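Format notes (please read before filing issues)

Several people have asked whether sequences and structure tokens are stored in separate files. They are not. Every record keeps both together, in the order shown below: the sequence lines, then the token lines. Line labels are part of the format and must not be stripped during preprocessing.
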Amino acid sequence: MPYAITKHCIRCDNCLPQCPTGAIKVIEGEYWIDPSLCHDCQDSLAPQCVDSCPVNSPVPWQAKKGRCKIDVRTVPSLDLFPDGKSHPFASAIASWELCNVLAQRHSLTWEIDAAGELYYQRQIHGGKGAIAFRITDSLDLEPPVALKGDRALSAIETFDIRSACLHLIYAAHVTSLERPWEEEFIINDRQIEEYLGLDKRKDLSKLTKLVLIKELAQQPCKLIACIDLPQQGKIKGIRLEKSRLWHLLDTQHHFQEDDLGCKHLVGLTFKIKIGQWAQHFLNRQGCKERTAFYQYGTLPKALLSAVMSIWQQHEGAARMMLWLLFKTKMGKEQRVTIPTLMRVAYGERKLSQTSLQPENRQRLLRIFESDLEVLDRYGLKPVFDPVTYPPEIQPLWAKLVDIPEDAEAALEFWIDDGSNSTRLTDAAPRGKWNRLMNARILHFELPPEWEQQLAKSKKKQRTTNRKTRSKSQVALSTEYIIEARKKLGLSQRDLAQLTGKSQSWIRDIENGRFQAKLEDRILLQKALGMNA
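Then the structure lines:
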């Protein structure tokens, strides 16, 4: 049973060094025992705070009953999601990778540098740039000190995938600021509860929610980044060394006393500021002057509550959902290979081990297909490539979509299915794993609030790239490529060799599965004898 400190406390400090779990806190001059940390000194004959207190202030803690009084608090920033659907958020590469680190944690490839610091690094812009993340356990020390060895590994193990939702909430708040790297915003526990759907969890006590919110709010602030990007046009190269992505400037604890004078935590208020990366990636004026970026997407509120609902049973689905939030911003036609999705959902190490252990493949396949079904249930419907991901290796739930709802029609459907040589309920064909390693999803059909994001990004792309859409793109239709190739007597393999591409890439272009990029269109023009 945890203990609480009554109003008889004389603040003598005798109990502070005696507590084995560090549950006794001094907040704004007031002594308080965190009941989530206090375990009644199970390894001792009696609670140490009771033994050391000269006035018998500590007493067994009793959960507070009744509603919390509305106290005077710092006014928070305006609520997000005024329409209940979505809000812009900072979606630059630093934001995407931080979300990946918080979601995938120990599944990523962490390395140790010459100083013994643990870091995760990703190459970007074709290896011309890089972004690396390190972990710190301090929230206020500047410059932050990165953890090493076992301490860093232990810190990674404590990270919670739900903290990625707090990161996205922060990223949404800063888009409302004109110069976010110079300004700050304030958010309280009530707002976070509503955004995450915790206000509907009647099975959790107020204290449990507050402890969870405080932990999740701190975790995005415990990662520091090194960003190294080359010059892009007029935008100068970017180089940041061990810079916090989020600064937790202040945490206010709101207490309420009961009849015995025991303080009960009833609220939290956080003051947050974005790191210096915002000056390069979330700079409206700099974007107009073409000296910086202003990269943003749209954060659906439904995604936050979805992750909070599925993170425990379907963590792989939650990881893919968070990853697709950024991936789909690039356009609906973005193809995704199945190995890429599996790496996001389960990590490179697990995928590699399973590939070498055939006995474990079936289990991972069942988990993956179940996670895909969860995405489909939340509106992220995968569209399978009919060439590389044909019906015979698709999940059973995807095949059952075509079953009619009418009883007689459904009966006729199953009768026809039973008379075919290949039935829906037949076992998967041999070699399904190897075929899946070459399969891909053409795109994901998105929920309405995600479609809104895609429409905005496409409109912006049409505006900025209007001049680059030249006659060559119109002329290089699929029909023209096929006709020109045949006139020259070239096979798909020959054209692939001339352009330095794969034969499957040429086949996909001719089938209209995707459009070639500008530099690839130039290659095709030269190979087909057309003036660029």
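For reference, the curators noted about this record: Residues 460-475 have pLDDT under 50 and may be disordered. The two ends are 78 Å apart (CA to CA).
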